[in-house]
Amino acid sequence: MLKALASQFRTLWTILQHSFTKAETVQYPERQPYLAPRYRGRIVLTKDPDGEERCVACNLCAVACPVDCIALQQGVKEDGRWYPEFFRINFSRCILCGMCEEACPTYAIQLTPDFEMCEYDRKNMVYEKEHLQIEGTGKYHDYNFYRVSGLAITGKDKGQAQSEAEPVDVKGLLP
Amino acid sequence: MATIYIDGRAYEAEAGENLLQACLNLGLDLPYFCWHPAMGSIGACRQCAVVQFKNAEDQRGRIVMGCMTPVTEGAIFSLAGDKAQQFRQNIVESLMLNHPHDCPVCAEGGECHLQDMTVMVGHRDRHYRGRKNTHRNQYLGPLINHEMNRCITCYRCTRYYNDYAGGTDLAALASRDHVYFGRHQEGVLQSQFAGNLVEVCPTGVFTDKVLVHDYTRKWDLQSAPSVCVGCAVGCNTMPGERYGKLKRVHNRFNAEVNGYFLCDRGRFGAGFVNSKQNLFLPGLRQPEGTYDTLDHHQALHHMQQACTTGKVAGIGSPRASVEANFLLRSLVGAENFSPGFSAHEQPLVMEVLQLQQHTAAVIPDIATIESADAVLILGEDVTNTAPRIALALRQSVRNKALAMAAELGLQPWQDAAIRNLAQDQRNPLYITSVADTPLDDVAEVAISLAPNEIARLGNAVARNIADEVNQLPDEPLRSQVDAIVTMLMSAQRPLIISGTGCGTSTITTAAAQLANVLCAKGKRAMLCLVVPEANSLGQAMLCDADAPDLDQLQHRATSGEFDTLVVLENDLYRRGTNVQIDALLAAFNQILVLDGMDNPTTSLATLALPAANFAESEGTIVSLEGRAQRYYPLFQPTAERRPSWVWLLACLKELTHKDVEALHHFDDITRACANAIPALSGITAAAPDHHFRNLGQKIPRQTHRNSGRTAIRANISVHEPKQAVDEESPLAYSMEGLNRAPPGALLPFVWAPGWNSNQSLHRFQGEVGGPLKGGTAGVRILLSGNPSPGVSNYPEKEEPAFLDMPQGLWLLVPRQQIFGSEELSALSPGLCELVEDAYIEICPADAKSLGVSTGDGIMVGNSLATLEVRINDAVAQSCAGFSVGLRGAENLEALHSVSLQRADNWRRRTPKPSSEEVIGSDRTLNSEALTRGTFRQRSARKQSTLPEGPHV
Ligand code: SF4
Ligand code: SF4
Ligand code: SF4
Ligand code: SF4
Ligand code: FES
């Protein structure tokens, strides 16, 4: 009985203490909170350090997406790069879980700390590639998939990627 | 059966089969690369390592290759032991030392056997820090993409391409870790079966080039069980769709038909489904020749009106389903229904059906063709008319090797040993044809004769065998006759192949009689008669022997009998010369055309109705062996496109036709057709009807990983519609349902846990390499071996005479093309680049007398056509081979006598390299070759500009 009573008072006391601590809530939107760069908000498509589209339309983000809100179609550019002919995210379905970013092998798709994307009309939540593509590299500044990959593109022939040897001379017979 | 012990557990396995196969049969996961169920083992990749123990006391054991180790009674193995596992991990790691960081941009990704095996062995981290070897890719033609960096040197490609498919232009080049799999020089892969490399190669070295440029991962494809409509063999396919476009065709295993392999016409020839020429709305022709579009209600109204004004005739199509043809036949009445063959071809196909119905011989499926121990081909160029049969024949000539191996106690899977043992020893294959054929390299003898001479030879052989005396002492073909008689009489399972390809029934009759005679001599003879199109045989079964042909229809129409003509999925301009078809169509007041695509016939229609193609509709077709098979839509047709059967059924209902009162579903039509046509009574068994459920569930067309469901249509509306319901089949347009061991006819895709590639197929087979657990797709409705007493087995007709052409005349003999002779496949992207221009082939002596050389122009007849001439010493003298179905040869008819004359103002066209499908990586490498124009001798059809001669 006494024990129970003590517990009640302790609770009251703890709550009372909170009256004198600093409030965590802020006067949004007058005051913007700090959000870490890794915060999971609106999704963007980034470019590589050379200013080329990073996305190679591999479809991994789309398949990783638990609500299936990413659809795209691959195409091949003149220079040999794979790229998305269209890239669509239906943000009215997106749960901002970040699985797509996790799955992306090229750092193309990234979540940003921007969460302010309310719309009166749901169809405005459907973003196409032109709405998603940004000019910068996002959080990851240095990675360029094509410098690692073996696919030859204009300006990077076979053997010119990281840790690649010059193409083999098939006709050479030396051991 | 033998008992073996794997990781301490006892299992039953077939003694003599290899351990890898046994493990897969038992459902155990053992990784492998180089072994292939159809090609056996060579132990090249070392991936299937297991530990074998001498006896129960042996603790150390030794590492052996599963695929090279026969199962023996009491053998003890360890799959899961550390030693074996570590070894397999090391193997994957070393196979991938030079593997590029490519998966995201690799068309194999997501269905890559290498990915699967890497995950299966648990390899994760690379330890190698050195530089990776790289290779330059080659241009291998418009169909196959080459990315050599991804090779793991399993040698499957060359084993398939050279040993299995008989190709000569793909090889392992260079040595040690520089090994390169490619051609000695860039260029189009020459084999007609090169496309199988896409499925045989366990990595992304060889991929489907058309797919690479409009790529969709396997998990995103919506697929359905389908049947190839490229020829009459009826290979089973698994086409895949995304965003309303057909993306690719993969093989669907059928133990009795295509097994693991397709031909390139089948694999790459379905792209016409995405054609820009597709019709989407019904069109009503206006007096000034333009078309007003209609919706389906208006169209149906016009259709009904057209069918009630005056008398209606119908032309069906050997490339449309049995059901659609049946409905059209019901609409116009059997006596007014023409099957839609050309007037020349109709009696040939009808006769082939007759011969097959009454033969005493076995009508073989493809698997049975592979068991033949002596083959005689009479006239037919199967590589170009029924390609998959040619691949089977290449296996049949190996039976000698297998027999030699069996004598030595070798197992059939010990591939390298058997090939070493037999070297070039083969079963006899005897080819007679109008000129060389691509099978000649494995033939014991290949001779060129005029069509009638081939028939004469066949008859002489039959007579000699039947009477056991030499019938024709002064027969000029005597030595050939003797050779063939000896060959056939010393065989147990002789196979006679012929067909309509030569354009004369004398040959098919001779073949059938020969087969019958062989049966009478106690042989288990087989008879395979090739017909031209996917449903030619079904169409022959549907129609009576006296069904009107196109000429008869024209006569009756000209005499005022008909007002309206309904044409079903048939471009009539491929069924006769332009003059003939113009006259036929001019004889009708109204022409209704149901077709999926704009073509010369559709553009003359008074009412054109957009019909769904094979990828958007269901249907039953009957293959050349009399196998009725069902194909299913892989996606729903858009706009006002409807399957032909839907248009026709709706029209019949509007007309309150009594026969269709009870017909609601597609299955009802199949059933009605089976009831009405005795020859087709078996077709209902071709596939389960729409009530079928797989353990209570529908079978999904989409994989469980299918992505983008809530985004695909979001640009149109954010409100996602309900998944489309398929009321006509047990398949669902969704990822829900159960794709586990479905009936063979209902297998939409293969996938099993841990097996994302097409190698997962073994999980659907009762035994690895054997028939599907759910049963083999299709039903044979032509039964083998039923001699009819009324039919003579003995050639009594007058001998076909030797060719004796008057001076200045040549006999036109058909030369079939795998790419181009078939109408629709030739319109497919990639493949259309390989379609050549029409040509005339003559022998050097004739060329000399005409004063022409290869590449010159030659005028055929009284300006029937002016074509490029090719000199080919394999063409029989006084014969002129003409390329069937190619642009420029429309007015040439088989077996007509024509004059030939050098065309003086002929200009040889220079092949122009087009660059749109050369991807970047190719281009940097090939830029030199491109400018020099050393490759791609074949030119695209689109670019052809004929200086003179008729055009379509
Ligand atoms: S965003 Fe990344 S994961 Fe998605 S398709 Fe592009 S590269 Fe692939
Ligand atoms: S072959 Fe397989 S493992 Fe190699 S890059 Fe392609 S998908 Fe990846
Ligand atoms: S190209 Fe493919 S099939 Fe050929 S050896 Fe390399 S990995 Fe094997
Ligand atoms: S052989 Fe005939 S049915 Fe088979 S894939 Fe080739 S064209 Fe199609
Ligand atoms: S599969 Fe056994 S060694 Fe390659």
- Placed side by side, the strands forming the largest sheet of chain B appear as 16-15-26-25-24-17-18
What is the helix content of chain B? Answer: 10-25%
Strand segment tally of chain A: 6
Low-confidence stretches of chain B: 910-952
What does this protein structure show overall?
The complex is a heterodimer of chains A (175) and B (952). Chain A is elongated and about 95 Å long. Chain A has 175 residues and is α+β, with helices and mostly antiparallel strands. Chain A has a three-stranded antiparallel sheet. In chain A, strands 1-4 form a two-stranded antiparallel sheet. Chain A has helices at residues 2-18, 60-64, 99-103, 129-132, 145-148; strands spanning 43-45, 70-76, 82-90, 109-111, 126-127, 164-167. Residues 910-952 of chain B have low confidence and may be disordered. Chain B starts with a strand and ends in a 20-residue tail after the last helix. A seven-stranded mixed sheet of chain B has the order 16-15-26-25-24-17-18, with helices on one face. In chain B, strands 32-36-33-35-34-37 form a six-stranded mixed barrel. With 952 residues, chain B is α/β, with parallel strands linked by helices. In chain B, helix 20 crosses helix 21 (578-586). In chain B, a hairpin with a 6-residue loop joins strand 8 and strand 9 (180-182). Helices cover 25% and strands 16% of the residues of chain B. The chains are: A alpha+beta (175), B alpha/beta (952). Chains A and B meet through helix 2, strand 2, strand 3 and strand 6 of A and strand 6 and helix 25 of B. Bound molecules: iron/sulfur cluster (SF4) (4 copies) and FE2/S2 (inorganic) cluster. One iron/sulfur cluster (SF4) binds at residues 228, 230-231, 233-235, 258, 262-263, 265-266, 386-388 of chain B.
Topology (elements, then pairings):
The complex is a heterodimer of chains A (175) and B (952).
Chain A: H1 2-18, E1 43-45, H2 60-64, E2 70-76, E3 82-90, H3 99-103, E4 109-111, E5 126-127, H4 129-132, H5 145-148, E6 164-167
Antiparallel strand pairs in A: 1-4, 2-3, 3-5
Chain B: E1 2-6, E2 9-13, H1 19-25, E3 49-53, E4 62-65, E5 76-78, H2 82-95, H3 113-121, E6 132-134, E7 144-146, H4 156-164, E8 171-173, E9 180-182, H5 197-200, E10 206-208, H6 209-212, E11 222-223, E12 226-227, E13 236-242, E14 245-251, H7 264-268, E15 283-285, E16 291-293, H8 296-308, E17 312-315, H9 322-332, E18 337-338, H10 345-358, H11 366-369, E19 374-378, H12 382-385, H13 387-396, H14 399-407, H15 415-422, E20 429-433, E21 445-448, H16 451-467, H17 478-489, E22 494-499, H18 505-520, E23 526-530, H19 536-542, H20 550-558, E24 564-568, H21 578-586, E25 590-595, E26 607-610, E27 619-622, E28 627-631, H22 644-654, H23 666-676, E29 699-700, E30 731-732, E31 779-780, E32 809-815, E33 839-842, H24 844-850, E34 857-860, E35 865-871, E36 879-883, E37 897-903, H25 920-932
Parallel strand pairs in B: 1-5, 17-18, 17-24, 19-20, 19-22, 20-21, 22-23, 24-25, 25-26, 29-30, 32-36, 33-35
Antiparallel strand pairs in B: 1-2, 3-4, 3-5, 7-10, 8-9, 11-13, 12-13, 13-14, 15-16, 15-26, 27-28, 28-31, 32-37, 33-36, 34-35, 34-37
